[in-house]
Specification:
alpha+beta
Length: about 110
């Protein structure tokens, strides 16, 4: 079964969930804020998504970080993401072992079938 990693208040996550439901695709959701983001789960995600692609530099959370935190991203990214799950790009759709679709735009899930 597919897993959709979301933050419930994210509009793009809602669109992704709706697209999967409309296609009749079975999936479970995992709310990164409510359900928590452990170091183990983050490592699991980063096995399928490059760290540079996982950090959402367009988020309010990113903009609110100090310049020092942004500059130390190479060494502290994992710790920052665990502290601030909204730094992780989302939604993340886990479609297979170590295979993730990052973000969502209309039509992204068309190839998944139903």
């Amino acid at each position: 079964m597919l897993t959709l990693y979301i933050i419930d208040t994210c509009d793009t996550c809602r669109k992704a969930r709706k697209a999967l439901e409309e296609k009749g695709i079975a999936f479970k959701t995992y709310d990164l804020r409510k359900d928590g983001l452990s170091a183990g789960l983050l490592e699991h995600i980063l096995e399928g998504v490059a760290l540079v692609d996982a950090v959402n530099k367009r988020s309010k959370t990113w903009r609110d970080l100090s310049q020092e935190e942004k500059d130390s991203l190479d060494t502290s990214a994992r710790q920052l993401i665990i502290q601030h799950p909204t730094l992780l790009k989302r939604p993340l759709l886990e479609v297979g072992d170590k295979t993730f679709l990052v973000g969502y735009r209309d039509g992204d899930y068309d190839q998944l079938g139903g």
